């Protein structure tokens, strides 16, 4: 592990990223803060799962890493995203074109509309290959066939000349993945890659991604709502809420002992086999319970988990003039989003960075 | 589409489908759209009509030409002096390039070759763009140097230098269009084509002037043997005797009509001179013009039913008898000329003159006028007989048997020929001007739609400014200020009417830019031009294509209107110009001049409109669902 650390410089480091969007036609009007200071780190061969409800800023973070946020209305307020040490937010469009697809690839969540209906899928995969690799058309076709074979599309040679409408949803998602993988990216941003798929296909695709990750030394940011998928596939989990990281931990640590009330709320809302329940506990019930906030070690010192409207009795004393939120490393390798109470006033947080893989345990 | 066949009971299982059993090759997007368009009645009509117009646009100079396709010149002894094709000699460089293209392109596209049809179409388009650019640029250079030294203009090196310089420039600018792999191959293929184009353009630097009359005369003399095309008239060929002839008139008809008109006019002149100059006292009639006209009519027709009227008016029996005799005499005169008997006609003339001589003239002057008219009646017997015989002789030679199928215009030019030659203007003005407008519209519209923000704001204002320009009035103003040729007209129509397509493309792109596949294009790292024009454009261009077909129709109408107003391009036949000649200089309505060009314009505009309509219906998924 220690030798690994030297070689394994992080692939992607998101540091205190804040992104906001213009909300009205008046540029001076109030802006929507989609991401308000998010930090996370992805290492090679590592899967970082980003979970959280819709609109919590997961996709915006991923899109920002490729500068896919339309600007305007979007704007990077602060922070940095370093890919292999260089801040991609400072890149101009031309430099970005060299990275997109080649180094960082992205899989979108909607397979039905993510492919251009006008071209054959072979054309679409090959275009990316021709763009990023110095190959001719026949070689590009071979690479495309190989990529389609890799993602388990039967009879890839024949299907190269088919159009998207001739594929089912699952097949199209595979095509999307084949397209993303054809150029051997080192980082894959998978934005809910399996949400649209049925469970069998979902398992196949995730298995496939895991295998590819092992063989290609690829880092994956897996954006999902599905905690089962997280438990199965992620090495590190980043739980987000309202544009902020509320909890960041190794996957087993998180599932064993979630520290933030919101994370607990998420877990409680999952039905369990063998458990008889009249109805599921909602997230609101958990985060509305003051007791849940007191469980966190160090509560008495004023370490209170950050939450937009904390229940009565847990309202923190805030440091005036500073952001109410701080990501605090409450235990080694475990981060929880907390209120910046006087106790944490001068705390300088180590950015969340876990060079950890489940496979390494075995 | 519904079919009368029963659905098959055989099925292929999903597993087999996965293994590729029963896989049918999907049609490419555009091929599929095209096949849906083509199976519609209206679209078929539109395409067929446009095809006919297009055929004439290319082949009109060969199909309708007053020059013989082949001529054999002999000297007086019957030895062959020269054997050549005046028609080919007279073709312009555009004609020749279009003919070569018109013959080779269908062959290239229809032959079952190994190369894909799409590739061949790309090749044809590239060649057409290159050759077209050369022709247009050379025309432009000619316009620029038109004012320079006569010495330079007549220099033999000028055509070749300009042609090859322009060809080389086009080679460098457009060689990338050729769908061949590798820059050297592209350069070689386009160089071959451009060399050919350059040679043709240099050879036909100015339009060669060969007049058709020469060959008609030669054939009559017996010094030439000519083979003519289907419609043996040039659009500018005319003779005074052909003024405003009805459809299906032949040349000998026209001559005969002129001859008879002349005889009739001569006789009518004589009658009028007599009636208006004899003494009113003796005449015994009230002196007013009505009575005189009445009398003229009586003499001309010899109608005895009019006698009681004349008696009532107070004319003496003597005079009535004299006028009746005069009438009979003139009819004999007419008959004599028609039959070609000089003696008979002269005798009749003498008799008529003798009757008139007995009448008392109104004054000295009147007497002289009557004598002059009498002399003319007698003296012109042989000349008039000559006319008639000449016209009759015409019906024997091939020139005389030529038909004006759709009549002639008031300047004596064949209408059918002009209509055939006008097809090129009609097709090209529509396609080129709309092409220009669609290209500008697509570029500006896609920038507006994709970027939004201030780009959209600024360009939208520009669009609004251009929308406020009335095209027709601009064209009328331009007709007075700029050279009046088709290129200028196309450029003006194209540069002003792009706003429609720009707005359509903008709307489509606004919708498309948020679609996932566009995001995924960007995520893959495709450059902007590829995202915009390769991926977004094909998904958003259908409304523009529909609009373009209406735009073509509008451009044709604009050209016809302008030509109708007499502001159309110089030296070009045009349907609008034919329409403007419907009422000739005499103010007589010539129905064939209104009907044929009118129907042609109507059908062409209808064809484009119907095509656009059907295209929209075939592409629009909502309509498709309704059709099923």
- Terminal CA distance of chain A reads 13 Å
Largest beta-sheet details of chain A = 8 strands, mixed
Average per-residue pLDDT of chain B, rounded, comes to: 85
The largest inter-chain interface, given as chain pair and residues per side, is: A-B, 39 and 28 residues
List the uncertain runs of chain A: 1-6
Q: State the distance separating the first and last CA atoms of chain B.
A: 7 Å
Average pLDDT of chain A, rounded to a whole number, is: 83
Report the portion of residues of chain B in β strands. Answer: under 5%
**Oligomeric state of the chains?**
heterodimer
Describe what this molecule looks like in 3D:
The complex is a heterodimer of chains A (362) and B (628). Chain A is α/β, with parallel strands linked by helices and 362 residues long. Chain A is built from 14 helices and 12 strands. In chain A, the strands form 2 sheets. Chain A has an 8-stranded mixed sheet, with helices on both faces. Chain A has a 4-stranded antiparallel sheet with strand order 2-1-4-5, with helices on one face. In chain A, helix 4 (121-132) crosses helix 5, helix 4 (121-132) packs parallel to helix 7 and helix 5 packs across helix 7. The model of chain A is unreliable at 1-6 (pLDDT under 50). Chain B has 628 residues and is mainly α. In chain B, the strands form 2 sheets. A 3-stranded antiparallel sheet of chain B has the order 2-1-3. Chain B has a two-stranded antiparallel ribbon with strand order 4-5. The longest helix of chain B has 37 residues, at 415-451. The radius of gyration of chain B is 35 Å and the shape is elongated. Chain B starts with 13 loop residues before the first helix and ends with a helix. The relative contact order of chain B is 0.09. The mean pLDDT of chain B is 85. The chains are: A alpha/beta (362), B mainly alpha (628). Chains A and B meet through helix 3, helix 4 and helix 7 of A and helix 25 and helix 26 of B.
């Amino acid at each position: 592990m220690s030798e690994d650390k030297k070689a394994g410089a992080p692939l992607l480091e998101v540091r205190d990223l804040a992104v906001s969007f213009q909300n009205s036609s008046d540029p001076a009007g109030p802006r929507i803060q989609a991401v308000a200071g998010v930090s996370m780190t992805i290492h090679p061969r590592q899967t970082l799962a980003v979970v959280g409800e819709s609109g919590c800023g997961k996709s915006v973070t991923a899109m920002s890493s490729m500068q896919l946020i339309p600007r305007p209305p979007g704007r990077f307020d602060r922070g940095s995203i370093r890919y292999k040490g260089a801040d991609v937010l400072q890149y101009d469009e031309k430099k970005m074109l060299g990275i997109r697809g080649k180094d960082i690839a992205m899989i979108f969540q909607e397979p039905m509309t993510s492919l251009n209906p006008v071209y054959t899928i072979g054309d679409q995969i090959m275009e990316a290959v021709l763009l990023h690799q110095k190959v001719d058309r026949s070689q590009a076709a071979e690479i495309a066939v190989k990529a389609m074979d890799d993602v388990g599309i039967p009879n890839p040679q024949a299907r190269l000349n088919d159009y998207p409408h001739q594929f089912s949803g699952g097949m199209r998602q595979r095509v999307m993945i084949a397209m993303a993988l054809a150029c051997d990216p080192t980082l894959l941003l998978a934005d809910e890659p399996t949400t649209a798929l049925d469970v069998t296909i979902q398992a196949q695709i995730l298995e496939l991604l895991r295998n590819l990750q092992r063989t290609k030394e690829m880092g994956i940011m897996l954006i999902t709502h599905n905690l089962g998928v997280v438990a199965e596939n992620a090495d590190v989990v980043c739980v987000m809420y309202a544009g902020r990281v509320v909890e960041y931990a190794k996957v087993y640590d998180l599932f064993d002992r979630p520290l933030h009330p919101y994370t607990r709320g998420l877990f409680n809302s999952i039905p369990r086999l063998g458990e008889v329940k009249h109805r599921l506990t909602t997230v609101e019930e958990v985060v509305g319970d003051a007791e849940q906030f007191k469980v966190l070690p160090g509560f008495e010192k004023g370490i209170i988990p950050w939450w937009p409207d904390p229940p009565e009795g847990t309202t923190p004393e805030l440091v005036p003039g500073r952001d109410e939120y701080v990501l605090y490393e409450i235990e080694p390798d475990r981060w929880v989003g907390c209120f910046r109470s006087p106790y944490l006033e001068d705390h300088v947080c180590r950015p969340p960075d876990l060079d950890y893989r489940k496979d390494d345990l075995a | 589409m519904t079919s009368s066949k029963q659905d098959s009971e055989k099925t292929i299982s999903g597993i087999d489908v996965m293994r590729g059993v029963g896989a049918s090759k999907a049609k490419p997007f555009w091929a599929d759209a095209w096949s849906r368009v083509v199976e519609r009645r209206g679209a078929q009509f539109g395409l067929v009509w446009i095809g006919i117009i297009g055929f004439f646009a290319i082949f009109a100079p060969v199909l309708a030409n007053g020059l013989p396709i082949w001529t054999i010149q002999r000297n007086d002894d019957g030895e062959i002096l020269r054997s050549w094709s005046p028609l080919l000699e007279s073709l312009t460089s555009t004609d020749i390039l279009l003919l070569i293209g018109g013959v080779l392109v269908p062959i290239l596209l229809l032959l079952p070759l190994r190369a894909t049809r799409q590739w061949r179409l790309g090749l044809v388009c590239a060649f057409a763009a290159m050759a077209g650019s050369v022709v247009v640029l050379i025309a432009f250079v000619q316009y620029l140097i038109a004012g320079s030294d006569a010495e330079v203009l007549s220099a033999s090196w000028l055509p070749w230098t300009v042609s090859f310089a322009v060809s080389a420039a086009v080679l460098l600018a457009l060689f990338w269009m050729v769908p061949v792999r590798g820059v050297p191959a592209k350069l070689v293929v386009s160089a071959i084509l451009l060399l050919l184009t350059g040679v043709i353009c240099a050879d036909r630097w100015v339009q060669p002037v060969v007049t058709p009359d020469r060959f008609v005369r030669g054939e009559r003399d017996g010094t030439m043997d000519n083979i003519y095309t289907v419609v043996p008239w040039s659009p500018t060929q005319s003779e005074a005797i052909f003024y405003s002839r009805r459809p299906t008139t032949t040349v000998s008809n026209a001559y005969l009509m002129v001859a008879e008109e002349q005889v009739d006019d001569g006789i009518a002149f004589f009658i009028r001179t007599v009636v208006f100059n004899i003494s009113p006292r003796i005449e015994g009639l009230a002196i007013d013009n009505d009575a005189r006209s009445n009398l003229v009519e009586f003499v001309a027709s010899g109608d005895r039913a009019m006698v009681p009227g004349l008696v009532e008016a107070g004319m003496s029996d003597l005079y009535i008898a004299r006028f009746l005799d005069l009438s009979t005499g003139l009819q004999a005169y007419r008959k004599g000329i028609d039959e070609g008997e000089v003696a008979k006609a002269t005798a009749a003339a003498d008799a008529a003159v003798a009757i008139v001589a007995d009448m008392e003239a109104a004054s000295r002057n009147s007497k002289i006028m009557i004598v002059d008219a009498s002399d003319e009646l007698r003296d012109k017997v042989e000349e008039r007989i000559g006319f008639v015989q000449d016209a009759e002789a015409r019906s024997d030679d091939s020139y005389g048997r030529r038909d004006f199928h759709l009549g002639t215009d008031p300047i004596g030019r064949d209408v059918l020929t002009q209509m055939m030659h006008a097809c090129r203007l009609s097709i090209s003005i529509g396609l080129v001007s709309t092409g220009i407008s669609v290209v500008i519209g697509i570029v500006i519209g896609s920038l507006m739609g994709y970027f939004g923000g201030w780009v959209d704001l600024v360009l939208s204002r520009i669009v609004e400014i251009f929308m406020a320009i009335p095209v027709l009035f601009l064209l009328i103003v331009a007709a007075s200020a700029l050279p009046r040729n088709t290129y200028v007209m196309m450029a003006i129509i194209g540069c002003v009417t792009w706003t429609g397509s720009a707005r359509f493309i903008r709307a489509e792109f606004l919708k498309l830019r948020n679609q996932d596949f566009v995001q995924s294009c960007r995520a893959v790292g495709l450059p902007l031009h590829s995202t915009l024009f390769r991926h977004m454009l094909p998904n958003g261009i259908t409304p523009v294509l529909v609009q373009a077909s209406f735009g073509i129709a509008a451009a044709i109408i604009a050209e016809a209107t302008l030509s109708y107003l007499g502001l159309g391009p110089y030296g070009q036949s045009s349907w609008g110009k034919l329409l403007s000649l419907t009422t000739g200089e005499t103010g007589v309505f010539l129905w064939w001049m209104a009907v044929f060009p009118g129907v042609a314009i109507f059908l062409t505009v209808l064809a484009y409109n119907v095509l656009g309509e059907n295209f929209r219906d075939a592409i629009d998924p909502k309509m498709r669902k309704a059709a099923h």
